Amino acid sequence: MHDLQTLLEQRIRTATAAAFGDEHAAIDPLIRSASNPQHGDFQANLAMALGKKLGQPPRKVAEAIVDALDTQGLLAGVSLGGPGFINLTVEPGVLAEHAVAMLADDGGGVPRAGTPQTVVVDYSSPNVAKEMHVGHLRSTVIGDALVRTLEAVGHTVVRQNHLGDWGTQFGMLIENLKDAGFDPQAGASAGELTALYKAAKKRFDDDADFNTRARARVVKLQAGDEETLAVWRALVALSNDYFETVYGRMGVKLTRDDVRGESFYNDKLAAVVGRLDEGGHLKESQGAKVVFPEGFADREGEPLPMIVQKSDGGYLYATTDLAAAVYRVEEIKAARVIYVIGLPQRQHFQMFSTTLRQCGWVDDAVRLDYVGFGSVLGADKKMFKTRSGETVRLVDLLDEAEKRAAAAIAEKNPDLPGSEAAAVAKAVGMGSLKYADLSGDRVKDYVFDWDRMLALDGNTAPYLLYSYARIRSIFRKGDIAFDGFAGGQVSVAASAERGLVLQLLGFGAMVESVAQSLEPHRLCNYLYELATRYHRFFEACPVLKSEGELRDSRLALCKLTALTLERGLGLLGIEVVERM
RNA sequence: GCCCGUGUAGCUUAGCUGGAUAGAGCAGCGCACUUCUAAUGCGCAGGUCACAGGUUCGAAUCCUGUCACGGGUACCA
Questions:
Q1: Which residues in window 302-331 of A are less than 7 A from strand B by Cβ?
Q2: Candidates 3.30.1360.70, 1.10.3720.10, 3.30.360.10, 3.30.590.20; correct CATH number of A4-90?
Q3: pLDDT of A259
Q4: What does pTM read for this prediction?
């Protein structure tokens, strides 16, 4: 069965072609949800634009389309409004049929992409030998939500964790570790690694002798000195252990198999520069090897170069990013590469993607998407830091989220058994943290605020999770197995039922649109609106107290709402709970 | 200087790519509970969509300029 909106579009297109000729058969009917429920369920906004094109009054155009419109078996009412809005009211029976079909659909009404693609998503990207911090939160959470959404519409997603696992800082790190008598076999905690990193940095800045040895160590590392590499490998392995525990706690779908760190491209960098040279794109400027992507200027208005090889022969992140893009397009054969990286790196992305196009390494058929996001701010609207001005560790945020959620649950529902309360606190805490990050337009900064993200009202995870739990509660109360309830017929009579069903039926289109726009906050808004409509339904339409077919119908709507909340939240990486 | 982004109610924000009266939540005021966990729902009040022009049937949305804040602007990532 086709998506309801698609059916409406087809009818309007057919009517438009009948009224004004076949050249309009492909017109976009601009079907939207009705701006006001009094106008109907949907509105078609094409008449105004078409009127202008045809030189006819839009109202006349709309009338002609309506006259030609086939309403049979779909529409219960059609009317005109304003300058030429076509208001559409769907037959209740059609809404009911679609709801039944959606309930029976394993995919939850999410259509599979017509042409599944291989999509690379580059996200999270923490640094080896350092703890993850608040700066990694958004990339990790947003990237994970996008991965899940793209998979849901049928794409093959290849996750890429572009670890910071190479570079000059490893010279001082390794040198310091060797001084400290570090045993690569023994291991160390993430906290210890961070302390060692800080100590190394301090010595590097303060101690001239150490500085010299650290530089020499970098050379050894790059030359493949086995003793040096052994320490480096141990560091990477320890960090991966740690990253996996953090991702596991967060429920993020990243493992060490997804790691393609900077070191992975190490042996491909010279070739990248060589290829640039062969293609005639490489220039020499002030001793460095550079390319000039078109359209970028420096302070003086001169063409801004992207340096791919320093005057001392070293490579930079631009080189690595070019190599990574080539790998993703040529080896992984990605049709789309998505970079989930903070806004400060936007220009860098634009420079290397321009270079990739300019060199012809990535043709127009391959899509390169930059998913930028704003900063996490503290209450003072500056970068989020601890009271003492330190970077906030990611695990501290996870701990705090669970702790605060546990306190809220203990207060609101003291009857929950301890073990379940702990599991619920984990889900609510993690969900709240993620949802707060996902629910606003990602390009905007947001102020980190525990009270708001854990609030029980408004567009928050607890509100949505509670809505789900309340539905499950109805099934428990009625002694009806949730999973086993298949649902039979659905009737859509009350306005609250109609409002709920219309929202439910928009789920698939919403997921599709997020897979395109890469804006998870739209899905958040959708789910919030769904929960709101459910609560209105819940207030107006008794479920267990109604009888017979009506009861079954309402149970079916409850179940479909619960499944849709669960699926939608699942796409955001958020787990539901049956009680809270 | 130049480039990019942001600016919507006291606060936090949405606005489906130009459509009908700019929607929510919090905070404030007023209703509705022998409940399907009220962790809710309904109502009232609250807007110069930063500012000024422009485009057109129609602008928070598009174009120009201004202001404020943030970011970027060659050998860090």
A1: 302, 304-305, 307, 310-312, 314, 316-317, 320
A2: 3.30.1360.70
A3: 98
A4: 0.96
